[in-house]
Design goal:
The complex is a heterodimer of chains A (about 110) and B (about 120).
Chain A: E1 4-7, E2 10-14, E3 19-25, E4 32-38, E5 44-51, E6 56-59, E7 62-67, E8 72-77, E9 86-94, E10 97-100, E11 104-109
Parallel strand pairs in A: 2-11
Antiparallel strand pairs in A: 1-3, 3-8, 4-5, 4-9, 6-7, 7-8, 9-10, 9-11
Chain B: E1 4-7, E2 10-13, E3 19-25, E4 31-37, E5 44-51, E6 54-57, E7 64-66, E8 76-78, E9 87-94, E10 107-108, E11 112-116
Parallel strand pairs in B: 2-11
Antiparallel strand pairs in B: 1-3, 3-8, 4-5, 4-9, 5-6, 7-8, 9-10, 9-11
The chains are: A mainly beta (about 110), B mainly beta (about 120).
């Protein structure tokens, strides 16, 4: 059974810090790994998609890496801002199925 | 602007009533999905559709039904058979979801929060 775990469940940092969010998955048969952002009461916004043949993807201050052999992905946020406060979810796209983690709730304080 | 529209944003129903949640997309995407989100749990797939007039059950389809009569629309009906219907429901779409190409990101609507009392 595919499982996706995100640690920590919650994270609080002061503005300006660089931070790393972790995502672990159990199924090595992976098409891609997606990172999403969810604001309270809203839907999910796609941030980055890393294909199985790639090791990382970058968008602005965000960098996501993928290590299939260890079943891990990380989302690196540089120079965090209060506007980054949200819940971040990762999802493993395996055959026929997208499995989501429960998310890391991030709070960036000014 | 292209996107996914879910309506209504909040929905209240009495136990025993069926209720239909709307999902419309103008992204010209082939595939559409319904997820349920509960506190402390990851999103769980209810139903998905790869093409008009075809859909498949996800992990938690019991008590739900869908239709896909048009490419743009994928309504979800929560029936009285669903034991715990109170939840946040999210609709999503992607360009394609065939057996060989899953590398397109999901686009989500803003959700419908259903409360059944």
């Amino acid at each position: 059974k595919q499982e996706v775990t995100q640690i920590p469940a919650a994270l609080s940092v002061p503005e300006g810090e660089n931070l790393v969010l972790n995502c672990s998955f159990t199924d090595s048969a992976i098409y891609n790994l997606q990172w999403f952002r969810q604001d309270p009461g809203k839907g999910l916004t796609s941030l980055l998609l890393i294909q199985s043949s790639q090791r990382e993807q970058t968008s602005g201050r965000l960098n996501a890496s993928l290590d299939k052999s260890s079943g891990r992905s990380t989302l690196y946020i540089a120079a965090s801002q209060p506007g980054d406060s949200a819940t971040y979810l990762c999802a493993q796209n395996g055959f026929q199925k997208l499995v989501f983690g429960t998310g890391t709730r991030l709070l960036v304080s000014p | 602007d292209g996107g996914i529209t879910q309506s209504p944003k909040y929905l209240f129903r009495k136990e025993g009533q069926n209720v239909t949640l709307s999902c419309e997309q103008n992204l010209n995407h082939d595939a559409m999905y319904w997820y349920r989100q509960d506190p402390g749990q990851g999103l769980r797939l209810i139903y998905y559709s790869q093409i008009v007039n075809d859909f498949q059950k996800g992990d938690i389809a019991e008590g739900y039904s869908v239709s896909r009569e048009k490419k743009e629309s994928f309504p979800l009906t929560v029936t009285s058979a669903q034991k715990n219907p109170t939840a946040f429901y999210l609709c999503a779409s992607s360009i394609t979801r065939d057996g060989s190409s899953y590398n397109s990101p999901l686009h989500f609507g803003n959700g419908t929060r259903l409360t059944v009392t």
